[in-house]
Write a structure and sequence with these properties.
The protein starts with a strand and ends in an 11-residue tail after the last strand. It has helices at about 40-45, 90-95, 115-125, 140-150, 165-175, 185-200, 215, 220-225, 245-260, 280-285, 310-320, 330-345, 350-365; strands spanning about 5-10, 20, 35-40, 85, 100-105, 130-135, 155-160, 180, 205, 235-240, 270-275, 325-330, 375-380. It has three domains: about 5-60, no CATH class; about 85-110 and about 215-390, Rossmann fold; about 115-205, Rossmann fold (3-Layer(aba) Sandwich). The strands form three sheets. It has a six-stranded mixed beta sheet with strand order 4-5-13-10-11-12, with helices on both faces. Strands 8-7-6-9 form a four-stranded parallel beta sheet, with helices on both faces. The longest helix has 16 residues, at about 245-260. It is of the alpha/beta class. α12 (about 330-345) packs across α13 (about 350-365). The structure holds pyridoxal-5'-phosphate and zinc ion.
Length: about 400
């Protein structure tokens, strides 16, 4: 297996600046926006068919040709990805959804889909000679970074709001990272992490501010296609914080169409946020390209407590191009739904995962999703991380 990664390209409309894949890069130097890894798709087509995948290990590195790490020896893996998709028949019966599915990302190492992004980002950082990493995190990303740093022999520093879930604090310490709790929100943690990185010469792996967490998260899109036998669902509902997952899946769908693995049909993509922190919902409804900073962001779902997203324009573009949309939900409904999903379906969801079901009900009542559509809810993490909420 070899990677066909070519370079990094700025995603901002009208910029398109290119950067080397063999040097450490973060945001576009020219315009400050997000960089995406690009691949030699024609060469991949000659070397790999989707049928070849059948023989590969069930983890996210099965798409190695379309991953950014060049030498397989640099891959830091704990078996992330290829999480199951369940037909949620019991849950579906409640409201009459006959084709309701849940992708259970809670089964990833460290109990959330953050494992994908951190496996990719730290593997690439290691390939580029990085020894020390730092990151702000709302919770789950911290635990994932600590674990992958441990596995890859990297030194890790985490900056977390002091009200981040206890389990995330514990797992970070357990895996040997230095944990710094700060009095503020994730964007404040981001600033402090960044200053620390500059001062101590560390690599800051903030979401979408380095180009590779994104490449890990995109594998959810590849898996959804592969697991559904290359027929994408009609609707995907995603709990949105920084939005890496939703833009990652969108990137994967476009790449797979270029590869000839899927056609032009796309799922409607929906972002769910909490009413107490809904910058993307607001920007979508106001038809804006960027979201404003959400003042006094508050929700019990730490992963969705993200008042400003560097990739806002990418999230909004995916929602609009897909014919999808947004939903804003109450914390109380989300917490109640954790119990509902667990008791009906046996899947123990993170509050963010439960939020997708609450959002779905709202979208159906607004006529944006039909009950008989093939619907996929992304349960991005495990309830085990949130015992304060149980
Ligand atoms: C469980 C969970 N769900 C969803 C999110 C939001 O993810 P994204 O940044 O891709 O929007 C997070 C982020 O911390 C999370 O931990
Ligand atoms: Zn640019």
């Amino acid at each position: 297996m070899r990677s066909f990664v070519v370079n990094l390209e700025c995603t901002y409309p009208g910029c398109g600046e290119e950067y080397s894949i063999d040097e450490l890069n973060k945001l576009c130097i020219k315009c400050g926006r997000v960089l995406y890894a690009r691949y030699d798709i024609n060469a991949v087509k000659k070397s790999l068919s989707k049928e070849d995948l059948i023989h590969r290990d069930p983890n996210m590195w099965r798409y190695f040709e379309m991953m950014p790490v060049k030498d397989p020896k640099n891959v830091i893996t704990l078996g992330e990805g290829f999480t199951p998709i369940f037909h949620a028949e019991n849950l579906g019966q409640i409201e009459g959804y006959s084709n309701l599915y849940i992708k259970d990302e809670g089964l990833n190492p460290t109990g959330s889909f953050k494992a994908r992004g951190l496996s990719a980002a730290l593997s690439k950082a290691k390939e580029l000679g990085v020894k020390k990493v730092t990151m702000p995190s709302a919770g789950n990303a911290a635990g994932a970074m600590a674990a992958y740093a441990a596995a890859g022999n990297l030194e890790a520093h985490v900056f977390m709001p002091k009200d981040a879930p206890i389990m995330n604090q514990k797992e970070t310490e357990l895996a040997g990272a230095s944990l710094n709790l700060i009095d503020g929100l994730i964007n404040d943690a981001g600033r402090i992490s960044n200053e620390f990185a500059d001062k101590e010469n560390l690599f800051d792996v903030s979401t979408l501010k380095e180009p590779y967490r994104q490449e890990g998260k995109k594998t959810m899109g590849y898996e959804i296609a592969e697991q559904f036998k290359w027929n994408l669902p009609d609707t995907i509902v995603y709990p949105t914080g920084g939005g890496t997952g939703i833009v990652g899946m969108w990137k994967a769908f476009n790449e797979m169409e270029e590869l000839g693995w899927i056609g032009s049909k796309r799922p409607k993509m929906f972002s769910v946020q909490a009413v107490g922190c809904a910058p993307i919902v607001k920007a979508f409804r106001e038809n804006k390209m960027h979201a404003e900073l959400w003042e006094n962001a508050s929700t019990k779902a730490a992963g969705m407590r993200v008042p400003v997203a560097v990739g806002d324009y990418l999230i909004l573009e995916a929602l609009r191009e897909s014919g999808g949309g947004v939903a804003a939900i109450e914390d109380e409904d989300m917490i109640h739904t954790m119990r509902l999903i667990a008791s009906k379906q046996g899947i123990l969801p993170a509050p963010e995962g439960a939020a997708t079901y609450v959002g779905l009900n709202q979208l159906v009542s607004e006529g944006k999703v039909d009950k008989d559509e093939k619907i996929l809810l992304m349960n991005t993490g495990s309830a085990f991380k949130y015992f304060e909420l149980m």
